[in-house]
Amino acid sequence: MPFQVKDLKFAKDALDGISEQTMTVHHDRLYAGYVNKRNEIEQALPKADRSKAAQTYSEYRALKLEETFNADGIILHELYFDSLGGDGSVPEGAFVEQVRKDFGSWEAFIEDATACAMAARGWAVTAYDVSDGRIHNFLCDAHNHGGVWGSIPLFTIDSYEHAYFMDYAQDRAAYIKALWKNVDWHAVEARFQRVLAAHHA
Q1: Spatial separation of the C-alpha atoms in residues 73 and 143, rounded to whole Å
Q2: How far apart are the first and last CA of the chain?
Q3: What's the topology of domain 20-82?
Q4: List of residues 6+ apart from 3 with CB closer than 8 A
Q5: Do residues 48 and 60 touch, judged by C-beta distance below 8 A?
Q6: Residue 135, H or E segment
Q7: Pick among 3.40.30.10, 3.40.1190.20, 3.40.50.720, 3.55.40.20: CATH of 94-199
Q8: Is the pTM of this model over 0.85?
Q9: What are the pLDDT digits (tens) for 148-194?
């Protein structure tokens, strides 16, 4: 089955400080574009001549590189959108407890995630690393750059300019401040619960 664009769980004009115009362009054009391109790549890969595969250039190499870029573009955007639509209120639960354990306090986690998003050219990704059993904020300069093998993403901040330029121009800090008011931490908690259940099964 081809990859499908997933609908938002909230209205495009429902966010506080992130406009309907931004969400329309971000979801309907940019994210949808990654879905369409991944489907194109999936169709092209079986026809690529593997006998000519080479590290300098080959059709197969080009397709495999863009496969990861577009696949991660889908995954990270779906996490981003699915983590929005809330009011920023923080529920008690396993995720918050793990964050406090790993960062010292909830406030320290927010400070670190904000700094990571400010420093990244692409994404800040909050992920559970199964190799050490801790939550980390990883910096990704591109969709397929900066991920840590074996870690499971739980929450993302899109730091590309397309996520905020129409609303805040170059003021990324103002966008991140607004984003915190819209996070659905209940969705992140539910995601973390599924990770724990699968990892400790």
Answers
A1: 5
A2: 29
A3: Helix Hairpins (1.10.287)
A4: 35, 38, 39, 42, 74
A5: yes
A6: strand 134-140
A7: 3.55.40.20
A8: yes
A9: 999 999 999 999 999 999 999 999 999 999 999 999 999 999 999 99
